[in-house]
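#struct-pred
JK: can someone run the complex with zinc ion? inputs below
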Amino acid sequence: MRSVINDPVGEHYWELEVLFRTAGDLPKRLGSLSDALRGQHLLHAKMYPLYEKCDTFCCAFTLGLRGVSMEGMHHSIREALGKDVVSLKHKLVSQSEVSSSNEPPRCGSLDEAGWAVLLQSLAGNFGTGALSAIHSTGLEIGASKGRELAQLHAREDWFMLLMKGLDALQSSGWGKYQLLKTGTLPHNIEVRIFENLECKAAMSVHPFENSFTRGYITGLLRSLLSDNIMVREERCIRKGDDYCSYVIE
Ligand SMILES: [Zn+2]
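RT: done, structure tokens with the ligand placed:
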């Protein structure tokens, strides 16, 4: 009976992260990468550009190897992408990590109109106290995301973790982000959010301070920098700016 269970006995799983330059032809590079992975037991894949305007792309996979070693896998990927490979990293992951990462978290969502109703109702009934509560919620969720990322990717630089945390916000539909270094110190950062869901939904809520998003960014940065920083929303679509921008005070 064991043979019918989808649980290959003795199969090891790996997390493999490939950073490569797209060299102006991303579909071709992705096609070559997919050819190099052909025949392997691919469980999970995540792909994203590292910066809006940068030529580097990241693909992260969880896979079980079939018939090749990890060294063989590295060789195939380097053959497929050639000099465009920026870095190639792997680590062994346990069966329990693989099973837990396969369970998608349950989530419910509200569209922009739904958020507008919720924010109007909260601000109308409970005033600025409700907005503070939304801010605290964002703060806690951002800090918790930062701690989770630091634990999962212990060897990653904090700036990479910040991007992963902002990826999570973006992929949940809160807006598209752009990250800028404005100076040499770790605190010299500006996060721009385009099409900010919360600010668009709160257009008719007065007074309103961008609560959840600012809280999330603050909490994320506090946990990654281990510093009690404050974040100010400098520009905002509610004031007629093209995007919302968050800077560390
Ligand atoms: Zn805004």
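RT: quick notes.
The longest strand covers residues 13-21.
Residues 214 and 231 are 7 Å apart (CA to CA).
JK: thanks, will look after standup
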